[in-house]
Amino acid sequence: MTEAVTVSKYLAAYPDSLQQQAARLLASGRLPEWLMERYPTPHGLRTDGALYRHVEALRQEHLRQTPRLDRVVYDSKIHVVRNALGLHTISARVQGGRLKAQHEIRIGALFKDAPPPFLSMIVVHELAHLREREHNKAFYRLCEHLEPAYHQLELDVRLYLTHLEAGGARLWGLPDPAPA
User: Fold this and answer.
1) What is d(CA 77, CA 149) in angstroms, rounded to the nearest whole number?
2) Model-level pTM?
């Protein structure tokens, strides 16, 4: 007989056995400890400028043929528990008889203090959208090419979001700089 499991929307696509394992970890209160053991420190890219330089360097290293990013920012309006981890947007407008496109990546502000692998997974996901718009096989192959541990990291991010959805506290964070 299998135990009843309340499925988090973040884990709904995973096998029942994994959902049950996650539910037990959450119910026992050990999920935060497990995450902190795996990912002990935040990434330290606290400003939009530092984030932009990091993402643009990854794009240059792996996706040189894709358009340059016009903007990369943390966005406090992205509510990850109800929406997305990040967004890749393209806005196009006619300027002087030419079509000009702007490429922008927005990362949920929740991930401003996340561990480096979590930020890497989200950035890779959004960068992959520069080449593949849809979440298809080619998209996920590209994500794995850019970040070989992509699928494990995606699961771990989903476990963290499940922890937050259940009312858990944020696990990582640097103190905000004191006003000058």
Assistant:
1) 28
2) 0.82
